[in-house]
Amino acid sequence: MLSAHPLVLDEFARRLASARVLSRLLDPADLSAPALLFPRARVYVVDAAAPRPVLRAALEQLRSAAPSARLLVVAQKFSEADAFAFLRLGARGLLTYSAAREQLSPAVSAVAAGGFWVPRAWLSRFVDAIFGSRRPAPAAAGRARLSRREQQVFDALLENLSNKEIASRLNISERTIKFHVSNVLAKFALRRRADLILHFFHSAPQ
Length: 206
Known about the structure:
The protein is mainly alpha-helical and 206 residues long. The protein folds into two domains: 2-118, 3-Layer(aba) Sandwich (Rossmann fold), CATH 3.40.50.2300; 133-203, Arc Repressor Mutant, subunit A, CATH 1.10.10. The protein has helices at residues 6-15, 52-65, 80-88, 97-112, 120-131, 140-144, 148-158, 163-170, 174-187, 193-203; strands at residues 2-3, 24-25, 43-47, 70-75, 91-96. The strands form two sheets. The protein has a three-stranded parallel sheet, sandwiched between helices. A two-stranded parallel ribbon has the order 1-2. α7 packs across α9 and α8 (163-170) crosses α9 (174-187). It is elongated.
């Protein structure tokens, strides 16, 4: 866990009492250090309330030291620009402080397992802002595992459409759509449609 505020670190640690937690306090003095030292971890919970130069230096050095690090960012609130910036940096989770009171532990577990924890409202705007009308193409190996109908459902999922909207587009029942959605997620070893969207953003050429 990384934060510029000791009380925040204490509160995060209390919320994650069942996990092994290592904390690091960020302060402006870190900016003069040649490199920040981070404990090795499966998930890094980053408090976005740190001074921006310190936060930026920490995230850049963390990505350099641990390119495959799984990031969960917590903030008082997220502007659209901030949320998108964190997602582009590879953040797999975005939580407000208020949501973290109940969701920090399950969010860390989801991110540690390779999933994502991002509100659906952010996903729609992020997908529109990044891809516009051009959706990310799945990897060839992934597409080869999908039936024709599953490919249609897959494309609709990347547009963040609801089951009702997909059913209307494909002219089949919502119950059938639910079946296909479950199959698509299972074939990519993902649990939620949000995971699918972010997985293909992070794996698509930038």
